[in-house]
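Translate sequence into structure tokens.
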Amino acid sequence: MTRRILLPLLTLILLQSLIPLAFADTQPILRKILGLYDSNIYHDPFYSPTHQSIEMPLNYLGLEVVYRPSNLPLPSVGEMKDFRGIVTWFPKINSVPDPGGYCHWLKEQMNNGKKIVILEEPGIFADKKRKMLPECKAAFKTLGVIYGNNWGDNPYFMEIAKKDSTMVEFERKLDLNEGLQYLLFKPTSPQTKVYLSMKRTDDTNSESAVIFTSPQGGMAAPTFVNYQNEPLGKIHWRLNPFLFFEEAFGTKGLPRPDVTTMEGRRIFFSQIDGDGIFNVSHIDQESFSGEVIDKEILKKYSNVPITISLIAGYLDQSEFKSPRAMRLYQTLLNESNCEVGSHGYAHPLVWRTGKVALQIPGYKYSAEKEIRGSIEMINALSKSFNLSKTVSLFQWTGDSIPAGGDIRIANQAGVENLNGGGSRFDKKFDSLSFVFPIGILKENYRQIYAGAGNENDYTNLWKGPYYGFSDILETFDKLESPRRLKPIDIYYHFYSGERAASLDSLKKVYDTVLSENIFPVTTSHYAKIATDFFSTHLSMLPGGFRVTDNGAMKTIRFDREARNIDLTRSTGVHGFNHFQGSLYVFLDDSNSHNIFLTNQKPTRPWVINASFEVARFTGNSSHLSFSKKGWNKSEEVLGGMLPRQKYKISVASEETFSAESDGTGQLSLSFSKSENNGPAVFVEIRKE
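Result follows.
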């Protein structure tokens, strides 16, 4: 029943007068990009170049990709209303079944304000003669160029007429002898920004815009997006995807949800897949690998959260139900810093076919059993030990390429999901082409990827060298600078406890990471942050921006932004800092956040960075308070305090100490302990 509240007429008039101010004209910032792919070549969008290469930089720019096979009916105008644009990267010259209708649809989308971005093959040619239909010529003209064909691939007859190296030589210099191709595209107006133009030496009127952007989108012609050498396993971007997509989709200056950062620090999480838990360790020829990991990792690094997953099918096999095995399960589930995950029932190796790793008598593959069934079995196991812990996360197994229906089962079971997409960027895999996006949408269900690869990727599928996992530190470094592209994820299996070399390597990774300024979270917490990246709603206010529906995603980033946050006008914001040319903004638990920028430095306190979650942040430079809840080191830097002023800091009834701000009003705090798995504590700061 609706409760009615009667207000005096004067009060009602006053409230009505405030409505335009509170809900000033807002304009939604559209973030969805329709990714068309050739399902005749790629049975799953996971394998498409749009997902493998394009989606990661689009995520970095705050955008998301929704996939659709190119052979399905094209979306209507109404279906496209929430989309910012369309991106294509077709593998064949004829990937589109109806080029005329498709090009008419592209032109219609551009006329309705949607951005069209075409990479590599446009997929609209009937054969290698590359004759273009009139409808497609009209679409390209709307995009900003006139098509003239004149295809060629002989480097002797080609030369570079103009290039913007920042845009077109991102990871590799252009080389005419690396299979570059020529097609003629003539710009139609000065609004078509050309970053690379080629010409034929045998034609005086042949200068072609092979990489360009326009108000309607942009294009990078075939062979100019990246360099590939399959025998050597090499892929390098020619195109700068960050700059190109920012221009083509018109996102410059817009706010970007960010899943890498909390309270100004890089997010850290860690998860263990259940494989090898009962493998006998070579270290002492006696202990289970799971026992070694518990003793040498979980207990020694008890100040950070680590998610352990179990393979439930072991519980239905007598050889793994011994008293010793049960004691190990109980010990692992009882560790205070351990979150519980499921790693399936029989550990599917290939989700599409149902091939499993564990051969359990009488068992026939079932996605329900693998996901919901395994979760229920692990929860029952925990309950049998009189523990209250339940499964928070389903960790995909094997190839980690589930169908949308599989992800739906995990969602309906009430847990987060994660794994797959093992990103790597180092001397061997020396391109951002090997860095995966946040996740993938399948049939309206979202799979969230791990933040990095695991020890399997560094030990030749556990054939050695067993010390190889420490090489992941190079990936962590390269994904931090010059852009923070990923959180830190220490991801491995229980069988890392098999070998002394692998265990030492794992300890080296933990020790190095935990010495840095990180923000530890549970793995399921990261999965929530990543999921809420996609639900976050952004809109433009007069002179500012609004963020709603952001859930666990608490950071907004502005790139190439030197201004500060106007804390007087902004709401739902308790901090910010500048890092590598970007402005990171920290959101509180409010339902709505209004963000305004200013050239002025704030005159009230704000969080510059913290290793813990900050809540209920309120007060002034003489007296402020907040609550904190975090893991590992408990540190914070505040701005906007009185310069060179001594403050008394009280932490609940447990701790009191003094600290002095510097000449700029920054106050650095180091608390004696973290809450780890405990409740938040109240902090009060007073001027002495």
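Note: The first strand starts at residue 27 and ends at 28.
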